[in-house]
Amino acid sequence: MRAFNRGIAAALLAILPACQRPVDQSAAAAAVLAADSAWSASLVTRDTTAYLSFVDSTASVQRPNTPAVTGHKAIQGLVENYFEEGVQKLD
Fold this sequence. Notes:
By secondary structure, this protein is mainly α.
């Protein structure tokens, strides 16, 4: 009988999470889209400060066939170089 009760308890524990209400993720999706738009705008307007606000201070970036650069100051120089070259889109 104890094994039967444990089985029922285990089944209930497995089923109960499925009974939760769905979470509305529209606010999170809107925040992601807003951040993406702001990041894109920082490239179009060539706003290095705004661009770096999306980059972690310990991040690394590497252009093809060049050494990686790490940190805000180095990445700032790389992004400014992109802008000087006329690049408006980073893929």
